[in-house]
Structure formats: C-alpha cells, structure tokens
Amino acid sequence: MSTNRFFVATADFAGDEVRLSREQARQVQQVLRLGPGDMIAVLDGQGMEYDVRLTTVGKSEAAGQIAARRPAAGEPAVELTLFQSLLIREKFEWVLQKGTEVGVAQFVPVLTSRGIVRTKEIDEGKLDRWRRIVTEAAEQSHRGRVPRIEPIVPFAEVFTRFVGFHRWLIAAPAPETTTLRDALRDMPGQDASVALLIGPEGGFTDEEVALARAQGALAVGLGPRIMRTETAATVASALVLYELGEMEP
Predict the structure, then answer these.
(1) In angstroms, what is the C-alpha Rg of the chain?
(2) What are 167's strand-pairing partners?
(3) Which one of 3.10.450.10, 2.40.240.20, 3.40.50.2000, 3.40.50.1820 gives the CATH number of domain 5-71?
(4) For 191-228, how does the pLDDT look when each residue is reduced to its tens digit (9 = 90+)?
(5) Fewer CB atoms inside 10 Å of the end CB: C or N, the chain?
C-alpha cells in the first residue's frame, strides 16, 4: 500500500469517490508525481483508512475511487490530552509535532505563572499553522485522527473547563511525587483517558501544584535528570502510552 497519506474532510466523500483539496491535488501532481491509476491512502479523521485509486489528477483538483477500507491501525485506544504551558513558537510547534507522532489526542495550551509567553488568544493564522503541523505529523506517523487543538486556558481554569478524565497527572519534581508507572497502575487500558500537565522551563509553582493536587491530580516525576519542557512533554506522553499498552508492536 502507498505510504502517501492524506486526511480528507467528511464532506469530500461521496459514495465510493473521494475528492482531495486543491493543496493536496498540487502535492499529488507536482510533488509526488502521481497520476491516474496510482494508489494513495486516505483518512477520514474519524478512525477509518481507505485505499484509493486516483482517477483524476490536475493542478487544482484530484479525485479517486475507494478500493478498500478498514479501521486505521495507528490510533491509540487511550485518549491522552496534553496540557502544555505556552512556549516560544519553535518549542511549542515541536511539542505539537512530536506529541502527535507519539499519540497525543488533544493539545491544550496553558497560561502558567512562570511561562514567558503571555498571550491569551491564538490568532487564526497561528492556529492554521498549528493545524497544518499536527495534520502533517498525523499523516506521517500513520495516525487515524488529527489531534484537536483547544483555545488557550489559564491554569486556574483548567480543572473547571475540562472534566471526565480517568486520571490527572502533573509533572512536578517534588518529594511527594510518584512514578508514572505507579500513577497509572490501576488504570483501565482500552478507552482510558489521561490528562497530562507539563509546565514551562521554570516548572509549575508550588501553588499551581497544590491546586492541581487539590483537584485530584497525581504529581509525577520523570527521573533524576532535568529535561527541557519540550523534551519532558514528549517523553512523558510516550511513557503514559507505553504504560497503558499503546506502544506494543
């Protein structure tokens, strides 16, 4: 099967025919040099994957016929939401890309006390760029869904705006921390939901950790070495999914 993968909007499916966007058509023709008869993989963003034989390829339009369909194999059953303190552009985009590759289902940018980025809203241009980053990363990593990106939320409002998780975890190097393994020991595997909070370069304040713990979050450590926040976000996300059985071959 082709490794060229494209997420396509539900509205662009019509029976057994699939139509690609103008930008995707340009990529198919001018970048990948594909033509009628070539196969691509198409994902509907709802967890299904399709083998599609191209029937029309042009500079501004491309379409194909569905040859086979199946559940996308790369989507974790565990839903992991990463609450990431806002970072400078390059670092935050790195977290979006690598988090998507690892298996994060949802990203929530968070305003924290020690964060150096203080903006309260995401402008549409930046949001479009973030969506492109996670979409391309999802295609590359064989995900079945594109992770969601939520609006920025102040730390104090995180626990009132987002509810229903099986487990809340906050990365905080302190004497009271536990290991990720112990924090997830009694978690259900399939269909579990985990909220993971990662702070800025200076870490969460004691007050923020206390608030999170008062709301039921478990403080977890990531070992004796100090990681940069973008590294901690990726490592902790991977470890959560590993402990819940989502990194098995």
Answers:
(1) 20
(2) 194
(3) 2.40.240.20
(4) 899 999 999 998 999 999 999 999 999 999 998 888 99
(5) C
Residue at 196: amino acid letter: L
CATH topology assigned to domain 79-243: Alpha/beta knot (3.40.1280)
Q: What is the number of other CB atoms lying within 10 angstroms of the CB of residue 25? A: 19
Whose CA is closest to 108, among 156, 162, 144?
162
Structure tokens at 247: 């990194």
Q: Rounded CA gap, 24 and 230, in Å?
A: 30
- What digits encode the pLDDT tens for the residues 101-153? 999 999 999 999 999 998 988 999 999 999 999 999 999 999 999 999 999 99
Tokens of 56: 């029309």
Q: Which two tokens stand for residue 240?
A: 């959560």
Give the DSSP per-residue string, 12-77. Answer: GEETTEEE--HHHHHIIIIIS---TT-EEEEE-SSSEEEEEEEEEE-SS-EEEEEEEEEE-TT--S
